[in-house]
């Protein structure tokens, strides 16, 4: 019996989206004290954990949190890329990967929103 079937996930893609949102939420909340407590880092962390929980429990409201998180994360990432890409390449590459994964996971959740409503 595979790990995915134990969690009753219909696809590996949904599991990857849940893991991504949960991991981002934990990382952002852990980084919060190290960055002098900016509110946008906390909001992204909390909304990511809520989206991961909603996707795991297959709640219909998950898509709304994912869309709000999509807007907040895109704004945060584009701002960070604009101001810090040429100064800190590692931060720029990490932010670009985060931005792309946020877009991919949000599009995936939007495409699978019917399975979230059951």
Précis, in short:
The protein has 118 residues and is mainly α.
Judging from the principal axes of the Cα atoms, what is the shape?
elongated
Unreliable sequence segments: none
Number of helices: 6
Number of domains: 1
On the 0 to 100 scale, the average pLDDT is 89
- Topology, number of strands: 0
The secondary structure category is mainly alpha
Order of helices and strands: HHHHHH
Helix content: over 70%
CA-atom Rg in angstroms: 15 Å
Distance between the termini: 24 Å
Written description of the protein model:
- The protein is mainly α.
- The protein has one domain.
- Helices cover 78% and strands 0% of the residues.
- The chain has 6 helices and no strands.
- It is elongated and about 45 Å long.
- The model has no long low-confidence stretch (mean pLDDT 89).
Layout of secondary structure:
Blueprint: H1 3-6, H2 12-31, H3 39-56, H4 62-84, H5 89-111, H6 113-116
Characteristics:
mainly alpha, 78% helix, elongated
């Amino acid at each position: 019996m595979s790990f995915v079937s134990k969690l009753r996930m219909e696809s590996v893609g949904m599991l990857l989206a849940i893991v991504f949102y949960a991991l981002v939420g934990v990382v952002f909340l852990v980084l919060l004290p190290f960055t002098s407590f900016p509110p946008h880092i906390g909001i992204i962390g909390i909304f990511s954990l809520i989206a991961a929980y909603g996707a795991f429990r297959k709640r219909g409201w998950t898509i709304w949190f994912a869309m709000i998180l999509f807007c907040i994360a895109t704004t945060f990432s584009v701002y960070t890329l604009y101001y810090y890409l040429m100064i800190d390449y590692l931060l720029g590459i990490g932010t670009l990967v985060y931005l792309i994964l946020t877009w991919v996971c949000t599009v995936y959740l939007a495409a699978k929103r019917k399975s979230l409503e059951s």
